[in-house]
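**User:** My hope is that you can spare some time for a protein that puzzles me. I have put the entry right below:
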Amino acid sequence: MVAKLAPRKEAVLRIIVREYIAKAIPVASEVIYRNYRLGVSPATIRNDMAYLGEEGYIIRPHTSAGGIPSDKGYRYYVESLSGEDIELPLDEQCFIRGLFYEADREFERWVKLATTLLAGLVQNAAVITFPRVAQCRFRHLELIAVHEFLTLMVLVLSGAILKRQLLSFDEPVTQEQLTSFANKLNAGYAGLSNSEILSRSRKLGLSPREQQVAGVVADVMSAEDEMEYDEPYLDGLRFMLNQPEFGQSDRMLGIMELMEGKDRLKPIFRHELAEEGVHVMIGEENQETVLRDLSLVSSRYGVPYGIGGDIGVIGPTRMDYGRTISTVRYLALVLSELFAGVYRDG
């Protein structure tokens, strides 16, 4: 928490941040005096800017030049944002919900749509990880006869994860027998994890063919638990690189290497968030070296103790924090509601 500034100095800092976000040029005291009615003289504004510089809230590239926000200045600005500053306009909320309403009921489509929407709405790079559960649980099993020796297994796991696999039996099996196997396992395994299924199987008195099915179910669930959805969805790199901060070829190259090598993006969401809601990491606050001159606005989405992922925006420290926070927060809410419905129904 940054120490509270006096009201006028805070007003000057907020003006500098907003002007710099909008125009990407140092903000001079004359601009503040001419365009904002603070009720004080230009000399007083210059003194306030000198104080903000001495305390590390702004940086003066040259003695006679205007000021630009430092990481500390951006941090103060973010913490001073009000609820009104970070509320997405109602018409945009309706627009977003309408798009998801029209989308197919598929995780991948939802995540791709959210990534594209987020990037376009904030004009920066959007990154969203695919939702997953910490430990999958058995929901439902169907066995469908394909051939007298061949069966299609359709397994539904927690989080509406659907797995299909062909099973081959040594002897012919009828659809009636397969339905009986499925009913027995559905009753015995409902809501169990893989380890719990292995323990329960010993008590169910399974026939050899039922044991074969149960073994495949356990193998599929074990593989799902070990699977990592490593590659996040990314969109908006073009928006980010179009900003003046990345005009230098060497810096642009570094950003492209970060974004296009998606495995380098994986660590940014690895740290457990201590609290719910939107988190803002500015410049040097980022633990990952590759983000030290960037800002990350992120949130978790999903079902508590169930399926979930991360949603975030990466951009220059000169980003529109109010707009970005409100958009990340609202899209996280929408995704959470969508996945909660599927998770509940599953």
